[in-house]
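Now for a concrete sample entry.
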Amino acid sequence: MTTALIPTSGDLATPDDFAPERAFDLDALCLAVDSWAATTTASDTPRRTDLLRDKARMVLSFFEFTHKSPTLVQPLDIRAWRLALEARGLAAETVYAYISRLSSFYTWLRRHPNLAAAIPYNPALLERPTRAKPYQSRGTRAWSADEVGMLLNYVKQCAEDGSLPALRDYALLVIYILTGLRRREVIQVRAGDIAWDGEALLLTTQMKGGQSRTKRIEAPVAAAAVRAYLAATGRDPATLAPEAPLWLAHDRATTMIGRKHRRDRRPDDPLGSHGFVKNLKRYALDAGLGDVHLHQTRHTFAALVGEDAETLAEVQEALHHRDLATTRVYLDRVMQHRDKHSRRIAAKIGLH
């Protein structure tokens, strides 16, 4: 990861664009935010395109809210923005992420000596809330077996009704639930990362931390779902280029090239994780599950494995956790623990 100062040549923003006496300049701010996002995001991150977009969107939403130049922002502006984010119903961890991104942008700005004088402190750092504890948000609840069935059956029905995106999303959802893999570990899969061994699907992906691992999915439904999707898109796995995206975006939306230019999607454009999450939320609402989060597929996998596992180490291996303590906390938050004592105690003390 590298860190750079604000560019000072060509058409890019310069420190003078943010001088206190200058009017608010959204174009210059967009250029600076794009430069910050690019220089603070590792070039080899698999989800780099998504991260660049998300980081820029979060920071620019603050300046669109305040309509102030960075040099004129005060901690009270950050507080007003935080309250506005909370009023929108955003989760505590999401609000924290927004303000953390803004704080990072200010840290980056203040590396330039001219701006360091104009911005004597980081206003976002003073108003950043305490980070929420892991696995305690509303999105950590594991789905019950009935809820998983409702969701999968609904998406499958949409696919059988002729929806190509639903056929793709059904295959994705099956893989997420059967493997417990993280968001990017499934979305990033390319044609060369899959293979079949009889009815089993072999899926090779880059895990968290950069390690590559092949996951064998024995349940025939996974291989069948992927095969059905490839057949529907007219693609033969044997002839696909290894680097070709497995999951394609099939809608007619436009895609961003930089912050100001758009183009129509091409048929072979890869699906972004945000596109799948948007669809997942719509499926869940239509199926009667309410608001859901993609990471709940991993929590559901953990809870189902934990119910039958003989040791905590078995769950640790299934989740690919490095630390057993992480698995212990994870399970404690996502599992619905069985009651082994209340009936016996009630009977002893005469409660009916």
Summary: The two ends are 64 Å apart (CA to CA). Strands lie at 194-197, 200-206, 212-217, 254-257, 261-264.
